Amino acid sequence: xxxxxxxxxxxxxxxxxxxxxxxxxxxxxxxxxxxxxxxxxxxxxxxxxxxxxxxxxxxxxxxxxxxxxxxxxxxxxxxxxxxxxxxxxxxxxxxxxxxxxxxxxxxxxxxxxxxxxxxxxxxxxxxxxxxxxxxxxxxxxxxxxxxxxxxxxxxxxxxxxxxxxxxxxxxxxxxxxxxxxxxxxxxxxxxxxxxxxxxxxxxxxxxxxxxxxxxxxxxxxxxxxxxxxxxxxxxxxxxxxxxxxxxxxxxxxxxxxxxxxxxxxxxxxxxxxxxxxxxxxxxxxxxxxxxxxxxxxxxxxxxxxxxxxxxxxxxxxxxxxxxxxxxxxxxxxxxxxx
Length: 338
Fold this sequence. Notes:
single chain, alpha/beta, TIM Barrel, 12 helices, globular
């Protein structure tokens, strides 16, 4: 495993970071989830990313149980706040980044994760309905109380990041990370978010480096969907992957296979190694529904893809790549969800 600093902070994270978004507490049984976490540890992964909303809190609970008995100081645990969590009906303050919701949410996350602090506490989305000053003051109080060491954001625009960073400086708290979607097929952060983050000393922890599994090459145009794959998951996975399932995209992905073979990499390892070529990327998030899946993911650690291979990738993918930076703003909820 290789390690990188998170932005310009002193915090080092494993460049392959384990995330449990669509798996723990929902798609896989708890014993398999625990086996995946233990295999990640065996492979040198020390950084683990989750969120309170994943499986309505169950993902944090499963991760906390799986990490029980590990030396806490040797781990980096990340979680997030924004979406509603808990029993129905949800209350009117059970979403967003109000002081009330943020302060209550950190305590819930720490309880489920069975830890006194998280290394990174992230705003899962930008909140249009709460003053940014209120949110950042709540984060400052959490940091100053020792419940979180660093602060991050997820799917924020460059302007939103810049505004939050200015307040963080005033409040003397370290805003060090951004967690956006990023892959060979989804490059919308490159024009605005990455340059702003580089200027401010913020690193990217990117999710879906394999474009929801499409970049594994297992989806072949005109062929039946693989049984048990994300594209067949009616619980949510199929909706997330549909943007990448056009035949034109799937055909282009198949043309990446010779490039991966020339580099001695599997398709998953190529996809993960590709995002790690961006110097602003501190870590690539990977998940697993089986422990053996992590074997290929970690082979991306420390890989340098030659410039000629990077050019071939760009040529092969051509117009199927999504680059519009305006799409970042679409991640900001335009209304309260409860």
